[in-house]
Amino acid sequence: MARKTKEESQKTRDQILDAAERVFLARGVAHTTMNDIAAAAGVSRGAVYGHYGNKIEVCLAMTERALQDDRFGLLPPQASPLEALAQAGLYYLRQSVDPSSLQRVWEILYSKCERSEEHRPILRWRKLADRMTMLYIRRQLKAAIAQGELPADLDLRLASLYLCSVLDGLFCMLKWAYEENVPNAMADSERMVRATLAALGGMTPLRHAPVGK
Predict the structure, then answer these.
(1) Which of 29, 213, 191 is nearest to 125 (CA)?
(2) What is the pLDDT of the chain when averaged over all its residues?
(3) Is the dihedral of CA 76, 131, 60, 41 positive or negative?
(4) Handedness of CA 117, 123, 125, 128 (dihedral sign)
């Protein structure tokens, strides 16, 4: 039997990973089998095992592929740290609803991957994404303080947690809005993101208490 070329092997891997996105999204990681992935990809079970040892390896490869295509790093630089933060938040809000490989993988990681020992390697990706998000927000807030956009006594830890919570809530709201065909959902989300950032400096509970109080 003739050996597959590198291009043919890559095509098979892409078929498998494309199918995995659909199946994991529909069934969840826990309830998906290698047979399910093979059937959805239109290849034999042996073909899947020829590239991946188990469904966890498939899910990891699927995640790595999608995150490599993340275009966040190509956003144009912003003079204002708060505007950069707004653009970053809006970018990921759009990613949560615009059909794409990245959108499907985010939903699988956060909604379709149950906490278990078996899934720990996959959940590490989610933990890393959460950590990088917090670091980015904190860095932008610190830069905004340095440029005088925010007060010097802003509690960076608390403000970062607050912004993450707002974005998480908007993710959920947008998902519901798109499923229900609610008009202007993305435009409304942008207004709420900008309103939150505009009000941030005046939120007294997010400021450090004066020494002695």
Answers:
(1) 29
(2) 90
(3) negative
(4) negative
- Pick the closest to residue 50 from 40, 37, 63 (CA basis): 37
Q: Phi first, then psi: what are they for 44, rounded to 5°? A: -75, 160
Q: Which residues pair with 154 in a beta bridge?
A: 207
Q: Which two tokens stand for residue 205?
A: 């509970």
Q: In 3D, which of 87, 58, 50, 54 has the Cα closest to residue 72? A: 87
pLDDT computed for residue 77 by the predictor: 81
DSSP one-letter string for 5-60: PHHHHHHHHHHHHHHHHHHHHHH-STT--HHHHHHHHTS-HHHHHTT-SSHHHHHH
Q: What pLDDT, on the 0 to 100 scale, is given for residue 4?
A: 66
Distances in whole angstroms, Cα of residue 133 to Cα of each of 47, 53, 130, 167? 37, 31, 5, 11
Residue 106 and residue 95 in contact, taking contact as beta carbons nearer than 8 Å: yes
> What is the length of the chain?
213
Band (3; pLDDT cuts 50, 70, 90): low
Find where tokens 């303080």 sit.
145
